[in-house]
Prior knowledge:
23 helices, about 20% strand
Amino acid sequence: MASAASLPYTPLFSSKSNTQNRLSLRSAFLHQNGLKSNNFSCSGLKLKVDKRGNSVVVRCEASAVAEKEASEASGETYEYQAEVSRLMNLIVHSLYSHKEIFLRELVSNASDALDKLRFLSVTDPSLLGDAGELEIRIKPDPEKGTITISDTGIGMTREELIDCLGTIAQSGTSKFLNALKENKDLGSDNSLIGQFGVGFYSAFLVAEKVSVSTKSPKSDKQYIWEASADSSSFVIKEETDPEKQLRRGTEITLYLKDDDKYEFTEPSRVQGLVKNYSQFVSFPIYTWQEKSRTVEVEEEEEPKEGEETPPEGEKKKKKTKTEKYWDWELANETKPIWMRNPKEVEKDQYNEFYKKAFNEFLDPLAYTHFTTEGEVEFRSVIYIPGMAPMNNEDVVNPKTKNIRLYVKRVFISDDFDGELFPRYLSFVKGVVDSNDLPLNVSREILQESRIVRIMRKRLVRKTFDMIQELADSENKEDYRKFWENFGKFVKLGCIEDTGNHKRITPLLRFFSSKSEDELISLDEYIDNMDEKQNAIYYIATDSLKSAKSAPFLEKLVQKGIEVLYLVEPIDEVAIQNLQTYKEKKFVDVSKEDLELGDTDEVKERENKQEYILLCDWMKQQLGDKVAKVQISNRLSSSPCVLVSGKFGWSANMERLMRAQTLGDTSTLEFMRGRRIMEVNFDHPIVKDLNAACKNAPESSEAKRAVDLLYETALISSGFTPDSPAELGGKIYEMMAVALGGRWGRVEESEATDDSSESNSGSTSEATETEVVEPSEVRTETDPWSS
Length: 786
């Protein structure tokens, strides 16, 4: 709807004296023809005049205003200009991080050309002609400093050369796929690799000049495309040399730069690159290799002096010698194992593929071969190695080269930083092949995206299924090997992957107070629990031996309650991150407020009342060393124990944190938490101290006993004493008191008197001096005496 601007005739202009002013106002807006026409234009605007009594209304259509504004705002359109040589330099040196990528890209282009020919020949068999098998050949020439990649694919016409190679980022494969999608009757083939149209130019990473000779079955002529690395133009000419005529396909010759001639004309290097990047391309790839063979030759011997020359008809002696020759050698497997139906692949074939692909000598412990469909489609074969990596750094290194990523059977990379697998599953090895991966234009860097997250989630899930199947198998030895090698990885998952706790927890294995020689699972622990037990008890120590003898376990073992032994450094942190399993809490038996569930509250209250004076007295003697002293419900044979506060570090955790190379000592005091001393009221030492606090609270011997009791409990509870030498002195002092005179020790003064009397008696009795031969003299410290 057009809006209007109204100019009513106001009373200001209504008087006769203002007629001239009114006409002047009108003349400022209205056309010179006056009001003869109701519609007119002025300065490009469409105006409409209406009379309303003595007033004049002028309306301006908004659409006309908009058109005028648009015409004034619009300008000329220009296309971007690019300096081709600089653009080529950016493509070549910015998109690719390694020079060797050029061979992968050119082989992928050759594979696409063969795929196109195979697809088009279904409807037009004449395209195949008699040009031979569909194959790729690579021939380096060290003398000329060139490398030639040839294929028997679809080739290109002159127009296609201009369109595909003459236009940067123009992908012939992409156009081919679009044409297939438009013609739905022909179907589509998504196995074609190239999509971006810049892979060909990677040749300039190593070449100073590139020559492309191509022959299409659609054309009778063969054309040559040539370009230099530092040029912004290219040349196309017709091939007239009959010796260089191709029956069909494309031949790319790279004239290598001086710095790259030696590396990329070495046949073994070329073959290695093909096996690394293009081993699973669906067409055979042949490389020109030097070989050796053994042949028999006649041995020519010159006759010695005086010997006659043998007749010509006589057979000469033959000998074998090794001669070298050049021939084509197949460098790739034509069918990748993950592209096959899992039902058709035997276990030995999986094992053989694993050893070849990852240079392993042991069979894998387990493997799984699967295909996922839906939002993301990919195929994968993943393995659990037969042993853990020898280098400890690889245990938690997310940048392992264990996962090999392929896109349409072309190797892309094995250098990832946790995109496809989390760090704790970095030991898993395998291949992943997908057509849907969002890669950058050089197909090297995996971008973080929704598709990658879906792939990661499914790969992790399949890995857990494989490990769980190994754990549930009848052969327990296989899972025992797995746990010995990779148990630390699984425990790391408890810390780093809270979303998969339900899958990780059933895989955990520990020793326990009822199973000291064989690892048990948490499910087995719960099955062995009493119905009234509502917690999973554990103790963390530095060894299995110290866990067995820990004083914290005395009452639990006496009551038949099973306690898990966490003897590896990562165990305690892993369990603390789990918190619960099947609605059962994890409880550390070395911390305060341990509830065993069957205590007699009346008797416990009476004991506390009886020993409250002892607890207060001991707390007074120990001062800030302990937060409090209380009666224990976890001891049966030990006199006392030191337990940690609920929210502080345990003795084991404190020991581990002290051992950290870059540990912060200021944090130790803050996180150490409080220490609580629990005493066993049934122990004779505690009963003696209870009597001492009532009868002789100021006794120095009693106070020394309390200090020594604390220091001893410190060690038996897993803590480290602040001054081991001081503790040793106290123990020696107590030993001297305990052992003094027990076995009839003779005082030093008495021994001196006895020795002097015996010496005087022997002197008076001695009348003759005995002569001893030198050979018979032997000292007590003579090392040669026997």
